[in-house]
Amino acid sequence: xxxxxxxxxxxxxxxxxxxxxxxxxxRLPVVDGAAEMLRSKTGMMKGTIQLAPVxxxxxxxxxxxxxx
Length: 68
Hints:
With about 70 residues, the chain is mainly beta. It has a domain at about 15-60: Beta Barrel (Barwin-like endoglucanases). About 10% of the residues lie in helices and about 30% in strands. The chain has one helix at about 20-25, and strands at about 15-20, 35-40, 45-50, 60. A four-stranded mixed beta sheet has the order 2-3-1-4. A hairpin with a 2-residue loop joins strand 2 (about 35-40) and strand 3 (about 45-50). The longest helix is centred in the middle third of the chain and has 6 residues, at about 20-25. The model has no long low-confidence stretch (mean pLDDT about 80).
């Protein structure tokens, strides 16, 4: 979990990055740097794919605080 403005583990300071394993990217197919829209029952997120050493089947992304 990152509380600051820079994610030093993954090397990014952007908040629109979607971290994905290379294995999942090949399977879908999705390329590094592609703009993608994630959808779930709780909402949507526009982001940019960044291949990273994350477990296959898992996506990591910055969870934004809801705006009221």
